[in-house]
Amino acid sequence: MSRADLKARYGGGIQGGIISSRGNEHVRLFSDDSKAAENGYRDGWLAEEDEWGAIFEYTGQGRLGNQTLAGNNGTVANHVGRGKRLHLFVAAGRRAGSGAVWQRYVGEFALDEVEPFTFRRAKDAKGEMREVVVFRLRPIGEHERREEDRIGPAPETDVRRFVASQTESSLAATERHESAEGGRAASPAGVAVRRESALRTAYESFLIAQDHSVFRHRIRIEGYSATFWTDLYDSTENVLYEAKGSSTRKAIREAIGQLLDYRRHIEESDAKLAVLLPEAPSSDLRDLLASVRISLAYREDGQFIREMF
């Protein structure tokens, strides 16, 4: 069916990638590769599933300048709190004789609870680089997953470094908008990641106050369609940090693996490694970190304590 057909049935407009109607709970998301390619990005299914299943990445609305979580992007970001349901359509050719674009229905989606969206660099309609919102959508119930809708893997590994303060935390942005909307019940995983985000931001400020230069690395790995971000890299002391929202054994084991994996790909291959935690870990977990020469930073009584190698 066309956008006009959908308007006749559900209301709302026909222009723009995100269409919401005040008269019902439906929000329509339209993805069109031909338009996305003009601005240097691609919507689609990630080739790799995680432990919770498949992810469809959908770029937010806004043709010029940095995208924000205002307007229709805010509706998507807070769809649960506003009682809205997300329905995804993909452009599928033109209707003969009219020029109208056919819209293929993919299914109903909800934002990923742990990482609902992220920010990436892409060109705007004038060719200027800017920040875009990339929503991470999880399918609900029956859905269509075609190979042609899959984001292809990176042809080669590409690592770029960004000033940490220029890469706004998606979870911090989520918290601000959920507070404005009255909030929603977060999953335990979501709570941990929000705690991690706040910890990372506070520690970044702590380092900057000491005149340290702080960055994050964006890593795209050959053969994978997902994008990975390191937490913090202190170039002044050459330390790569991985932040965690808890000081449990599971979290620290995960941090060790992430640090070793990330360091293989970044230019600073001799970087020292450190785990950033919300509170001091047990003595046995301290010994675990020491056994692999990974330093420790944690909060205690509102201050950051560092045990560095």
Automatic annotation (TrEMBL):
Region described as Disordered: 164-188
| InterPro entries in UniProt | SRA_ScoMcrA (IPR058712)
One Pfam family name from the record?
A: SRA_ScoMcrA
Q: Which domain of life is it from?
A: Bacteria
* Domain ScoMcrA-like SRA positions: 2-145
Q: What is this protein called?
A: ScoMcrA-like SRA domain-containing protein
